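Minutes, project check-in

Agenda point 3 was the complex the collaborators sent over. CS summarized: two entities, 652 residues total, and the question is how they sit relative to each other. Sequences were read into the notes so everyone works from the same version.
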Amino acid sequence: MNEVNDRSRDIGEFVPQADDDMIICRCEEITKGEIRRAVHDGMWTITEIRRFLRCGMGLCQGQTCARLVKDIAARECGVPYSSLEPATSRAPMRAAEMKILANEK
Amino acid sequence: MYRHSTASAQRTVAVMKRYDLIVVGAGPSGLSAATEAAESGMKVVVFDENSRPGGQLFKQIHKFFGSKEHHAKVRGFHIGEELLREAAAAGVEVELDAAVIGIYENKEITVRKAEHIEHLKGDTIIVATGASENMVPFEGWDLPGVIGAGAAQTMMNLHGVKPGQRILMLGSGNVGLVVSFQLLQAGCEVVALADAAPTIGGYGVHASKLARCGVPFYLSHTITKAEGSDRVTGAAISEVDDKFRPIKGTEEHFDVDTICIAVGLSPMSQLLKMSGCRMSDDPKRGGQVPDVDEYGETSVTGIFAAGDVSGIEEASSAMIEGRIAGARAALRMGFISAEEESARQKSFSADLAGLRRGMFAPGSKGRMPEKTEEGLDISVNLLTKGYLSDDEVTKYPGVVKKKGLHPVIECSQNIPCDPCQDACRFNCIKVGNDITLLPQVDMGSECTGCGMCVASCSGQAIFLVNEDYDDRSASVTLPYEFLPLPRTGDSGFARGRSGERLCTAEVIDVKTSPAYDKTNLLTIRVPKDMAMKARFYEPLPAREADA
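CS then shared the predicted structure for the full assembly.
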């Protein structure tokens, strides 16, 4: 975990890649390039990336892209996949309309 | 003001429903856990976000492996129906269209129902939320027509809708293999099955069913592109190097309208993480999983995890894990004695140990041994092409040459499964006490041709062969699960293990019986020298048959 938090590490410049415009988070339409760019802009944890880009915050709540985003971020940071902590899990665990959320019984 | 808020707080506490056990997820492990606990006298509710209970079981139309205790040779959806009956008999409440969206302190949960959110409390909670399908990104992966293998199964087996006409399957694990076969059964064409790994990940017998239908395997291959502008119209795959990078110039194109992805599952463990359970990232168990003890209890006392959510396995072990957690919860709440619990756990752990054996056991994941437990070479052909070659097949103990009618069992990998042993009333087939051993054919026993062994093999690896059918021909009886069912007198082609057309074949008998549970037995007549080669029947195309 220390390695992940060590922000003095040099992860190099952002180098454009051929598949940067590939959509990774389909719900929020976030591309691979945007995620890689976010890492170089200083977002080194999944929580930060999620707040910055909203990937994993759409209808499926990251069910499809969580692994993919984590994989891209870990590669870009140069750390093992398992060392990146996944996003915080919070309620509502499934998408719910506000009128339902507000209607507690 | 003070009085008012106290009164309302008291009222809230008074109306919040309480259960001895709340189970999240009505799949195989959740239902088993609920039944075990309810049978012990607990008041149990199961919530599931879907409109139908049973989890993935109701999509599983194939026969399961294992022993009798593990529901071997029973089709998945029948197991699901049985679990529902057991749960209902035990007095379990099952609430559908009810998603548990949060677990809070003191085991309070929130459930999203059609129009409102409900708060409930459980003295114990078992989280059995299962897993979700992994995706792999490639150019065009977000086009309509790229779907999960599980989605394909839902469309076909629950809704009766074909996912497409021409399919490329990615992933050679059991999910990829089983779903590919079901796609063929639904009348789709599986044009290729590709996997980046150098060897087939699932059971060899599942792969062989596809190979003899003519599905080609592309191991060490990955998808590079889904083609099309508003939907999939094609796909390109490339061979990969030892670092799984596509090799330039090896690209191959397929005209397909559907790309099915079966590249593994991830535990849906977010609820456990939210509830404060200690979590680990464990690639061997499929991703983020809770740290659990041998009873599935997490670091939060009274919160359990059972089934795929605590590590990807399969339905049979999920059911036992559910039972284990259910019994433990009953002990925790004082519904059963310590002696009673320990007796039950002993039998469950023996069951579980029986399943977690052989070449595909969780412990040996990714490491395929070179030899079987009997010391025979594992077929490389089977691992890379999906079938045993004609000269390899005779090495295995179930493949014998004998005068007259006899079974030929093309079972070459040690997996925990033994229904064939009980299928023969004349004890012609022996697996022995060790459930993972390869079946042997007793040379002394007479075969009556009843076909029970053929229908009982979940891997469809048993055939009845008679090399002395008449002067010139042999008969081969094979399991057949396609429609329309050929009729006696039809002619078509015999296919070999690799799917190649060998010769013309005449259907001389078609048997169906409730005891076969929808595995039909087709007997074809082929030239004598094809007796040990012909393993599938291909009807003539409709036009040729008319002409």
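Noted in discussion: The first strand of chain B starts at residue 17 and ends at 24.
Follow-up: revisit at the next meeting once the mutant set is ready.
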